[in-house]
Amino acid sequence: MTSGRTRKLNTRGVMVESMGILEGAIVLLLVIILAVVLFRLLRSAVALLINAVVGVIILFVINLFNLMALFGRPDIPINILTILISAIGGIIGVIIIILLHIAGISLTF
Question: Is residue 53 part of a domain?
Answer without folding.
Answer: yes
